[in-house]
């Protein structure tokens, strides 16, 4: 089992929450050992081929490919060729969200960030690649040269990157629905449900109760939720609970059973199964490697 670490990025501070990385050295078979952090990250393969793992999803990326890593995702990169080299942009989510305005924009962005969707690999044939590639290059070079106002240049291109990603996500998942049987009013109406899940993830959550929040029958609410988020309700609830469990597992005074209970799982065995299916690690492996990081 590879080492798993929460990486606290010291260069990502309050004044300018952004840093870059350039990695070609291999350590224990990895360019990037398995870890996670609260920041968002964009990785680009500069040379060779690599094997990328995001939670329980593994795929190959080649030269010029771009990978989006969401906040809290366990990720790692292994070289598949001797010349493999990657660069990364790491930045706080607040860097982007602090200037969000407009109800619709906020709702779409919040869903984009919360959902572990498949929008993660962008090859040169992808319609977003050219725009993403240009902004990534600019951010990297601006941070390297650090000429006057480099922060403004970086920030503007991070906005371009996130705007392109969120618009594509919106177009793929919601635009056609808005033109059809799902109005934006219906889409926006799931906000109380998402807020309820965030506040009550440690409790039993019932389909009927959530349906009442949006005045829908269980059947119609389930369809609305899947259309709005791209996930089934149980999958979304489990994702929310596991994200919270990662934080609770850093407290070694809590047993695995107690963490399961604090995140809404009555059965610790089922908790372990769900945790591994989402993250690729068992709760105990996750905790043990976090403890090693603290002691090292």
Q: Helix coverage percent of residues?
A: 40-55%
What is the number of E strands? 10
CATH superfamily of the largest domain: Regulatory protein AraC
Q: Which range does the strand content fall in?
A: 15-25%
Which residues sit in consecutive blocks of at least 5 with pLDDT less than 50? 8-13, 176-183
Q: Determine the structural class based on helices, strands and strand pairing.
A: alpha+beta
Write down the Rg. Answer: 20 Å
CATH top level of the largest domain is: Mainly Beta
Task: Fill in the CATH topology of the largest domain.
Answer: Jelly Rolls
Organism: Paenibacillus aurantius
Protein name: AraC family transcriptional regulator
GO molecular function, one term: sequence-specific DNA binding
Domain HTH araC/xylS-type: 191-289
Overview of the molecule:
- The structure is a single chain.
- The protein is α+β, with helices and mostly antiparallel strands.
- The protein folds into 2 domains: 173 residues, Jelly Rolls (Sandwich); 107 residues, Homeodomain-like (Arc Repressor Mutant, subunit A), CATH 1.10.10.
- It contains 12 helices and 10 strands.
- The strands form 2 sheets. Strands 1-3-8-5-6 form a 5-stranded mixed beta sheet. A 5-stranded antiparallel beta sheet has the order 2-9-4-7-10, with helices on one face.
- A hairpin with a 2-residue loop joins strand 5 and strand 6.
- Helix 3 runs antiparallel to helix 4 and helix 7 packs across helix 8.
- The two termini are 18 Å apart.
- GO terms for molecular function: DNA-binding transcription factor activity; sequence-specific DNA binding.
- This is AraC family transcriptional regulator.
- InterPro entries: AraC-bd, Homeodomain-like_sf, HTH-like, HTH_AraC, HTH_AraC-typ_CS, RmlC-like_jellyroll, Tscrpt_reg_AraC-type_HTH.
- It comes from Paenibacillus aurantius.
């Amino acid at each position: 089992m590879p080492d798993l670490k929460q990486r606290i990025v010291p260069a990502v501070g309050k004044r300018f929450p952004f840093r870059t990385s350039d990695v070609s050295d291999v350590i224990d078979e990895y360019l990037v050992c398995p870890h996670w952090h609260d920041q968002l990250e964009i990785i680009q393969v500069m040379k060779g081929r690599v094997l990328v793992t995001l939670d329980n999803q593994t795929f190959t990326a080649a030269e010029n490919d771009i990978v989006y890593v969401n906040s809290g995702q366990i990720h790692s990169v292994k070289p598949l060729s001797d010349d493999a080299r990657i660069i990364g942009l790491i930045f706080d989510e607040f860097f982007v969200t602090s200037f969000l305005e407009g109800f619709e924009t906020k709702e779409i962005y919040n869903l984009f960030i919360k959902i572990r969707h498949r929008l993660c690999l962008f090859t040169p044939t992808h319609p977003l690649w050219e725009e993403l590639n240009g902004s990534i290059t600019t951010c990297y070079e601006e941070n390297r040269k650090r000429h006057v106002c480099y922060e403004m240049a970086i920030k503007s291109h991070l906005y371009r990157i996130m705007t392109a990603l969120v618009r594509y996500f919106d177009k793929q998942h919601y635009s056609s629905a808005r033109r059809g049987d799902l109005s934006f009013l219906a889409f926006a109406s799931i906000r109380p449900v998402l807020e309820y899940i965030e506040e009550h993830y440690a409790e039993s959550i019932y389909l009927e109760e959530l349906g009442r929040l949006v005045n829908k029958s269980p059947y119609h609410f389930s369809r609305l939720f899947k259309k709005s988020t791209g996930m089934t309700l149980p999958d979304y609830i489990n994702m929310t609970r596991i994200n919270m469990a990662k934080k609770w597992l850093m407290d070694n005074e809590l047993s695995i059973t107690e963490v399961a209970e604090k995140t809404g799982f009555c059965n610790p065995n089922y908790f372990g199964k769900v945790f591994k299916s989402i993250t690729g690690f068992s709760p105990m492996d996750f905790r043990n490697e976090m403890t090693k990081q603290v002691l090292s």
